[in-house]
Amino acid sequence: MINPIWLDTFITLVETGNFTRTAEQRFMTQPGVSQHLKKLEEACQCELVIRLGKGIQLTEQGQRVYHYAKEQQEKEQDFIASLKFDAPFEGKCVVACSGAIAQRIYPALLALQKQHSALNIHVEVAPRRTILSGIANNTLELGIVTNQPESEDIHSEYLGEEALGLILPRSLPDALAAQVPGLSENAQGFISGSGSGSGSGSGSVAKVASVSGKAKSKTDDGRIIEAVIKHLGLINHPDAMHYLQRYFNDCGEAELANVNPNKLTHTGYINQLSQILLPVSEGLGYTVLPTSTLDFVSFADKLTVYKAKNEVTEPLYSVQTPHSALPARYQVVKQAITQVLG
Questions:
Q1: Which of 7, 82, 228, 316 is most buried by its number of CB atoms within 10 A?
Q2: What are the beta bridge partners of residue 209?
Q3: What is the rounded end-to-end Cα distance, in angstroms, of the chain?
Q4: What's the CA angle centered on 158, arms 152 and 161, to 5 degrees?
């Protein structure tokens, strides 16, 4: 094994290009620098530098030794950094979550990293099953998932709730009116815009209404929304079936509770969260997503959220391995996440 002290001296010599400055920076004498170089050349069994007066020129072997020495130096620095478990404001943190959650927490994590520049925060967007598998296999340290996992290999903590919404185009296609009983010839008035919600993630909440603006009974609302989703078509995405089933079960609409999501017509599919609502805004279909996604699209005014009898939410949990404590920096990150989701 090559003496790391000789390599450190050699790095300084190459980067200063001068024996005198190398001696000053290494707190050595010039003969001491020459001695380290000689021993390194003997260990490598080749000439590493050509002396040019007070300066030097690297041989081809010298260039290779320099790159090798730099790699060793960087590996050592990374290794030492990896041992700093209790440094609360420095080191790498990887958080895995869904795309909708990432949209909500990433601004807060960026603000935290800006405040503590030694923090290196990575957000990985992944489906629930991948996150739980990563935690169980110790390839992930911290994740956020919906619904509490039932596994002894995973420790979970409640964070808050994620509101789900049945998201429709604000202006329904005219052609739909002829297919859905209860709608007039012009379907533009099907969704009333007077029920706009407020607050983060609320979106534009609307009730089903007649064209004339007179509110229908809740039974009529349920029948009409059932007919609309059957005729309008689903914009499918990786979590759509899960969200639909939960929404239909929990929304309190008897008509929707009897709908089988697997038998619904699909009018499109996309797996990029930022694009799922685009076809909905163009009247090409509907979907179910966390209502927080409406806060991150520029065309939210073209969308509306059906106001069901019951609010539908999913619980959010942080997940980690139960057998070891997370480094202190993860606790800081978890606090920032809890403030957003709690």
A1: 316
A2: 215
A3: 54
A4: 130
On the question of pLDDT at 85 being above 80, the answer is no
| Residue 50 CB partners (closer than 8 Å, separation 6+) | 56, 57, 58, 59
**Which of 84-88, 208-212, 277-281, 338-342 has the highest average model confidence (pLDDT)?**
277-281
The model's confidence at residue 214, banded by pLDDT at 50, 70 and 90, is: very low
Q: What are phi and psi of 78, to 5 degrees?
A: -65, -40
d(CA 326, CA 288): 34
- Asked if 56 and 17 touch (Cβ cutoff 8 Å), the reply is yes
Question: Is 91 exposed, middle or buried, given 0-12, 13-18 or 19+ CB atoms closer than 10 A?
Answer: buried
Do residues 314 and 146 make contact, with C-beta atoms less than 8 angstroms apart?
yes
**Beta-strand runs (E) in the chain:** 49-52, 55-58, 91-97, 119-125, 142-146, 155-169, 205-206, 234-236, 266-269, 287-290, 303-306, 312-320
CA 65, 71, 75, 77 dihedral sign is: positive
Angstrom distance (rounded) from CA 153 to CA 132: 9
Please say whether the beta carbons of 34 and 48 come within 8 A. Answer: no
* CB distance 161 to 313 below 8 Å: yes
- pTM confidence score: 0.65
Neighbouring residues of 65: CB distance < 8 A, sequence distance ≥ 6:
7, 10, 40, 44, 48
| Strand segments (E) across 176-231 | 205-206
Scored b (16 or more CB within 10 A) or e, 95-118 reads: bbbbbbbbbbbbebbeebbeeeee
- In terms of Cα–Cα distance, which of 318, 311, 333 is closest to 163? 311
What does pLDDT average to over the chain? Answer: 85
Kindly give, in sequence order, each residue whose CB lies less than 8 Å from that of residue 121, ignoring residues fewer than 6 positions away.
92, 93, 95, 109, 110, 112, 113, 333
**Which residues neighbour 196 within 8 Å (Cβ) at sequence distance 6 or greater?**
204, 205, 206
Instruction: Specify the pairing of strand 155-169 against strand 312-320.
Output: antiparallel
As to burial, measured by CB atoms within 10 angstroms (0-12 exposed, 13-18 middle, 19+ buried), residue 69 is buried
